[in-house]
Design goal:
266 residues, two-stranded antiparallel ribbon, 2 strands, elongated
Length: 266
């Protein structure tokens, strides 16, 4: 018999939140338990949903300590009101429970991708974007203008056509790069063709998958900023979390999935 709770925990550890939520739905429908609701809180889509799942866990098992501790961190108990009529009796001394350690940040739970592997993935993606750009340029007739200029004996005509060709290709390349990265990262959970080949993935710093807004911020506005003399890319060499400028703008990190697969095998 397959231990679905173990599968859910493994999916969460691998940052496969869609898979985790799918398994959680099946588990809650067939065998609702405090453990299942607690795992559902870890993969919740919103802050309110997380609280709701934790409360459901405590409804099934009021003594379920993990849900109680996490809920106490999210919603601290309100301070007691002072009585003006008479001083309240002093409460008996209570030994405070040991503090619950916060979960380690994602940068400690997953191995960050090396800068060299990230650059290899960028090269693969750059080649893919370049091929698509040239294909679209050919279909759109961009080369016809340059070809006509090459056949002309007028140097001014050639210079003007070459400049127009360069502007058209650069604009098309920028648009293709934006659509390529946003579409791939949204549909393939933080991966482009290059990152799939190099087994890398872009995730939020809290471990959640990136959304379409994150992809737009990171791969359109962020790439533009990082591309200034490539300083934004070189920044990752010295950054503690290996973040480029576009990573910092979108609040993302790039992790190496080979480490996750190795731990799963071991």
């Amino acid at each position: 018999m397959v231990n679905r709770l173990a599968e859910i925990q493994e999916a969460i550890d691998r940052f496969q939140m869609d898979r985790a939520r799918e398994l959680i739905g099946e588990e809650l429908e067939e065998n609702p338990s405090a453990d299942a609701y607690f795992l559902a809180a870890q993969a919740a889509l919103s802050h309110g949903q997380r609280i709701e799942y934790l409360r459901s866990a405590l409804e099934l098992d009021p003594e379920y300590q993990p849900a109680s501790d996490e809920l106490a961190q999210i919603i601290p108990a309100p301070p007691k009101e002072l009585s003006v009529a008479a001083p309240a009796p002093a409460p008996p001394p209570v030994t405070a429970p040991p503090p619950v350690p916060a979960p380690p940040p994602v940068t400690q739970r997953a191995r960050l991708a090396t800068v060299s592997r990230r650059w290899l993935a960028i090269i693969v993606d750059g080649l893919a974007v370049g091929v698509i750009t040239l294909m679209l340029a050919g279909v759109g007739g961009v080369f016809m203008t340059l070809e006509a200029a090459l056949l002309s004996d007028d140097a001014n005509v050639f210079s003007s056509a070459a400049s127009q060709f360069q502007n058209d290709v650069l604009t098309m390349n920028f648009l293709v790069s934006a659509v390529y990265n946003i579409a791939f990262m949204t549909m393939f959970n933080g991966q482009t063709l290059g990152k799939i080949m190099l087994k890398l993935r872009v995730i939020k710093k809290n471990g959640r998958r990136i959304g379409i807004l994150d992809a737009i911020i990171r791969n359109v506005f962020g790439y533009t900023i990082s591309g200034m003399f490539l300083l934004g890319y070189l920044w990752a060499i010295f950054d503690r979390e290996k973040q480029t400028w576009h990573d910092k703008l979108a609040g993302t990190v790039v992790v190496d999935e080979r480490a996750v697969e190795k731990e799963a095998v071991e």
